[in-house]
Amino acid sequence: MTNSHSADPRQLFTVLTAGALVLLVVHGLGRFIYTPLLPYLVADGQFSAPDGAAVATWNYLGYLMGAMLAIRWHRIDQIRVMLPLFLAIHVVTTLVVTQTDNLTVISASRWLNGVANGVVFVQAPALILEWLVLRNRASLSGLVYIGVGIGLLVSSGLVTGSATLLEGAERWWPAAVLSIPIAWWGAMQLRRLDVPVRQHDDSGQVVSNTPLLDRASIPLFLSYAGAGLGYILPMTFLPLLAKMTLPQGHGLLDGTWVIVALFTIPAPWLWNKLGTLMGDLPALRLNFLIQLAGVLAAVVWPGALGLVLCAALVGSTFLGTVLLTQRIGRALHPHQGPRLSAAMVALYGFTQMVGPWLTKQWLDAGGTLGSAFGIGVAALAFGLLFAFFVPRAEVWHSRS
């Protein structure tokens, strides 16, 4: 089909910025800000550490459910309605937790905030990818994930900067106040994107509701499951592993998370570039190798060297896994990009919940936290293996 759409650099910058900002809002100011907030909320006596872990679990469950809802609401006309709605839900639920110390209300709010996060995290990149594909600029799609890395630093700065000024539920106010203008602007920009409701796929064929799973997508799903289980262990337990293995007062006790954040910010640009230069599928395999080496480093060298390598290599790769897999999935099934994207994020969310559970079983059985990272090594090896069974899109579409 002839592509009649075009976009000037200013349009591209505006759209990618809007996408990055809405991910910063739901992921940075919604999900990740809870990690640095938790020690302060426990110290304030708002709830205990086990209660805080339960609140986090509710948020993760909401994220999984949100991604599953996005499978149902995958059409462009549905995304135009649901994306602003769930950004508003993020703002409302964040405002709610500024007003209460009730654990049930907090848990319910964080669950619903997770649902909003899951929907937006699927729909915003999927909508932007469709817009870019129409303009032959799909290779830029991964840049929206820069918002996640910046969100790590912004959320950490908001918590640290207001630590001595606020207490208890008040600590959520910086996230709530910053979310309102960013979410509104991002929603308005994305809602007006010129993306027609597709009646035909990229080859001109009438869109049909084909199966989500086939010989092309199943290996990609299995590979992505390995990625989700592999990355979540260091992303959850790396600061705790540093605390358990390093002497008191060591600079890396708080430094591992900063290293992850700093390496996360340029990662989308890097893997976008590598995907363009060498192809998304070879880049994904390289991504798995580097990420696997990072988690393995924490197992082989459980001291400062292993921690730094793990933080740097995982931080610089996990978002690359996301953007490359999403692009490969859409190339294999161009007529159901948002639906496939939602299914992948739901699977990713599920494996993120399985990872901490498996770690708990390992620790309860007498294993150490350092050796539990071996679970992540095995998961990433699993993902790498199945990445070699994913066909190249041009080969898949040229089959007889």
UniProtKB/TrEMBL annotation:
Pfam families: MFS_4 (PF06779). It comes from the Bacteria. Signal peptide: none annotated. InterPro entries: MFS_4 (IPR010645), MFS_trans_sf (IPR036259), Sugar_transporter_CS (IPR005829). The chain crosses the membrane at residues 12-34, 54-74, 81-99, 111-134, 143-166, 221-242, 254-271, 306-325, 337-358, 370-390. Keywords: Membrane, Transmembrane, Transmembrane helix. It is a multi-pass membrane protein. It comes from Marinobacter shengliensis. PROSITE patterns: SUGAR_TRANSPORT_2. It is found in: Membrane. This is YbfB/YjiJ family MFS transporter. Its main location: membrane.
